[in-house]
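Each field is listed here:
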Amino acid sequence: MMANDRPAERGLLFIITNPLDKLLVWVSIAVGAILAVNMIVAVFFRYVLSSPIVWADELSLYLFCWATFLGASLAVKRSDMAAVTFVLSRLPFKGRVLGSIFIQLSILFFAVVIGYYSFIWVVSPSVMNQISPALSVKLWKLYVIVPFSMLCMALFSIENTLGLVRSLLRTGKGGAPE
């Protein structure tokens, strides 16, 4: 029941979300690899050489946050969020689709609200002018992942919702459930 099942349904939103999905996958892979290398090197320096790297813990924290937000965006794209489907799986096809639409609209609402307030927070002077203690990087560069991932989640949930609505309309016109 994805919006991208048929070539005719690939519109402007697909043109935006498909490359965005690929970008998020590659950035997630890079962040995960850097995080793994950073942690291995940090442990080696701390316990083998007895000379800890000052900035390694802070870098791990921010990389883990980035991986979490990127992963959440990708989970929305693929509809792979953690869910309790006890009730939803027992509904007839139209009930499952309507329940899924409600879930996607809830995700959209969450992403818009959190995205809006996180954007205001990131561009506030208290964040824009603050520098991380160990990395010496402006904090807005580290925190920008929050509004960016919420934007991605919003786009992906809109795409998923449209796909669900299309599948509901197809079944309403005599089409077979997907």
